[in-house]
Amino acid sequence: MTMYISATFKELTRKRVFLVTIVLTFVFLVLFAFGVREIAGMSEQNPVSPAERLLNSMVLTVLGLFFAQFLASFFVLFSAMGTVTGEVENGLLLAVAARPIPRWKLYLAKWLGHAVWVSVYSTVLFVSVVWTIHSQTGLPLRAEELLRGYGLFLWMPLLLLTLTMLGSVYLPMLGNGICAALLYGFALFSGLVEGVTIYEGTHPAIEKFVFLTGLIIPTDSVYKRSLYELLGGADWAGLAMSDMGPFSMPSVSSNAYLVYTVGYAAVLLLLGCRAFSRKDL
């Protein structure tokens, strides 16, 4: 298994888009840290109440992690969209599949290899954003809330990875990338629409739209639950995200929904293993 993890990393580093992603991620983290530092400096020059200071730090957390999950999702898309069909087209998969190993094990090994590096990248983003805000603004963090938020933040790109790898069995590399990006964008759009409607009251049709979207592609719902846990759950999250326009969070996914996402990922992995086993190489 270690061999496939190492091979996945070597394949990622051979792509020029990997270097571009790392550079842009570094630029984002530097600019974000600079912006948070400047905002914190302005707060010190113009003293505000502790409640307002806390609210401002939570808003910065929401905005920073929103862009961080955006970067993590596109890291998944560019790295996994050609996992199967892309390697079939360049002949690499033929050499690997010739080994005496069941195809479903090969599929799971590839998933695990990508999952490790997606988790590493997402961890760097999460820790950098949260640590920057905590150190500059004094955002209070409790260990259990931090761990729950971190775990769900990692789970979001892993769900997208599972979906993208399944698509790579059926669709050509470019078509799979476009399809996965559109599905992710569709989930993101539904979440923003739900946030806008907080001012006029949630319409039943919009509730059904958001619910069905969450069943098809649960990435945005899991991401919002991670924010909810990180910012203190019902104690503070509602205060921070009740008046942020499209970034508002009128509702959060339940524990039962999180169990559904585990079953969702398991079914997609099972379908991927089965389809890959039957695929004509």
UniProtKB/TrEMBL annotation:
Domain of life: Bacteria
Record-level GO cellular component terms: plasma membrane
Transmembrane portions of the chain: 16-34, 54-78, 111-133, 153-171, 178-199, 257-276
Keywords associated with the record: Membrane, Transmembrane, Transmembrane helix
Molecular-function GO term, any one: ABC-type transporter activity
Name under which the protein is recorded: ABC transporter permease subunit
